[in-house]
Recover the amino acids of this structure.
DNA sequence: ATGAAAGCGCTAACAG
DNA sequence: CTGTTAGCGCTTTCAT
């Protein structure tokens, strides 16, 4: 049951390893007769090159690791798919890792756990700080995603969260005056929420609207239920709003639930805008408008940077902004 | 920028490779003094073992491939997570592959594309037939998931779809008489739908209810929208039902939409039961009851079978049934 | 308890 | 255009 090796094929075809190798790699300078003979031996023996051995010999694995907090979260699974597909176009395969946002798992990612297994890593940190990443990282090519940490030494891709939040807020301002922000999570360690809140505030200031802290809703956690509860409670307290900008699509789903329970119609009474443009936005009732990070764009930029690093590019960390848009659906119809 | 190797550490510590290897592997018979000296050299040099080289030497990769139709589909991403987590407990890492259900990609999975890269493969086929899989598969350890194909030579894990459909139908029958099935997709190549429909029919027959083909709703595709449209059209034609058993959670979401549009209340007028128990079921309004395959259980069984095969187990394909349940939420409240 | 040396299967100089 | 050979970095007998 021992596997067929290159030498077995060579012996069978009565040629050297090099010739077999040339055939396997579709090298040009092989006589057709030779090629046919070798191919026959390959087929008869059912030869498959051993990828591990090839990697060791070439020093190139053709694989990159992608480390994300949760592989089954809608945004991350959709982004993973984009990255895997774009990587395939660029000749790489992707090893998907889940950190669950745990510090230890994140540290393992940075500290060359994948030594010699992958050519580089794309990493979306949650709990590691900028300082920590800068300090612990090895010389493994690395590109960071998301907004929580950005060491000066490391490449980084994100969307402009502040601008996106401004765009969203301005959209909602077109027909409404009182725009809520849902939500700031207590003890949120991710920088995303802060940036989004910041953009929301900027847009209001630019519009000459006085800040109103009662419009900023804090949730107890990241679940849909937490968002629903936060908005429900606020509505019960008499909160009066025309629209709500949500931190992500899950929170927006919670908002739709809370508004429905309160007997408010979306979008007629209150408009709702989500964030991430995941598949959730297309299946809710009403369908959900959502700030849409360009996932393919993020994937492409991250891979380009990473592949340059793999190719030997040195220098300080580059900071790239990926495009975003707003996918308009029913929940903001008329805006 | 050349990496630190085992020999570098050995030279630095003034010992042989073997001793360093013993330390790295936490072998028992190493004197504490020696261990300390070697560890110091490892730390100073920042040595990380090259995993590719280790793999080539040991012949074991410690990695398995998981090939699924779509990595961002709720059911598959959740199942992937379970498999990755259980695999980690068992000392394996998972390389996730996406086939998009394409015949060519599926064939590549079977035909040792991963040669020497992984120790085995867990594969959820969609378009490959039983015969084709039996014919094309190499000697790479393989476990199949899902219900579409089951060659006699290959291990296979699934839930009892027929029984699960009976269970679901019986639950719905407790308070309703007219139970619809949504949906059979035109040209559905997966066996799942047929089995589920079969279980539904069996349950009705056992209850002495005459079959009624007007209750079996065919959809034009696998999207939420297809399901919504199918049920809407049926309701518009005057279809009168007490409950609907859905082929999967996405179809159930579509059913909720169609019922809401028709002014029917769930669960009071019509109960809805989904299938797969994905996160979608927890965020819909009302929340969705769903037939729940035990994803951890599937993962555990699949990995146990695969690891036995990796360990050299020979013999005919084993056919294992994983447990299922029904997660009851609002959409069937009162049943 | 530690060292020396022979592979694991493939690639890539370098010859011929 | 084809063959020979020396590694890639690690594990693993077999000695000592």
């Amino acid at each position: 049951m021992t596997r067929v090796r290159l030498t077995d094929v060579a012996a069978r075809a009565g040629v050297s390893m090099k010739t077999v190798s040339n055939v396997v790699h579709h090298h040009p300078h092989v006589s057709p007769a030779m090629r046919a003979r070798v191919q026959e031996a390959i087929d008869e023996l059912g030869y498959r090159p051993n990828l591990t051995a090839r990697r060791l010999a070439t020093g190139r694995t053709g694989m990159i690791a992608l480390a994300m907090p949760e592989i089954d979260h809608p945004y991350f699974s959709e982004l993973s798919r984009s990255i895997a597909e774009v990587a395939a176009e660029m000749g790489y395969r992707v090893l998907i890792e889940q950190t669950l946002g745990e510090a230890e798992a994140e540290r393992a990612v940075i500290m060359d756990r994948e030594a010699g297994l992958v050519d580089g890593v794309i990493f979306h940190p949650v709990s590691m700080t900028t300082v920590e990443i800068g300090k612990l990282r090895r010389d493994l090519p690395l590109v960071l995603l998301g907004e929580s940490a950005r060491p000066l030494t490391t490449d980084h891709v994100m969307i402009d969260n502040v601008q996106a939040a401004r765009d969203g807020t301005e959209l909602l301002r077109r027909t409404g005056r009182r725009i809520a922000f849902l939500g700031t999570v207590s003890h949120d360690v991710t920088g995303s929420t802060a940036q989004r809140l910041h953009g929301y505030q900027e847009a209001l200031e630019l519009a000459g609207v006085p800040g109103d802290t009662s419009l900023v809703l804090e949730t107890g956690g990241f679940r849909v239920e937490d968002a629903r509860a936060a908005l429900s409670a606020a509505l019960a307290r008499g909160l009066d709003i025309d629209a709500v900008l949500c931190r992500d699509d899950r929170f927006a789903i919670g908002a739709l639930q809370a508004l429905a329970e309160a007997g408010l119609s979306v979008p007629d009474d209150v408009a709702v805008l989500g964030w991430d443009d995941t598949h959730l936005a297309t299946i809710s009732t009403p369908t959900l408008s959502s700030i849409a990070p360009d996932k393919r764009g993020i994937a492409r930029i991250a891979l380009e940077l990473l592949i340059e690093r793999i190719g030997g590019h040195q220098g300080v960390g580059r900071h790239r902004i990926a495009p975003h848009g707003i996918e308009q659906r029913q929940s903001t119809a008329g805006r």
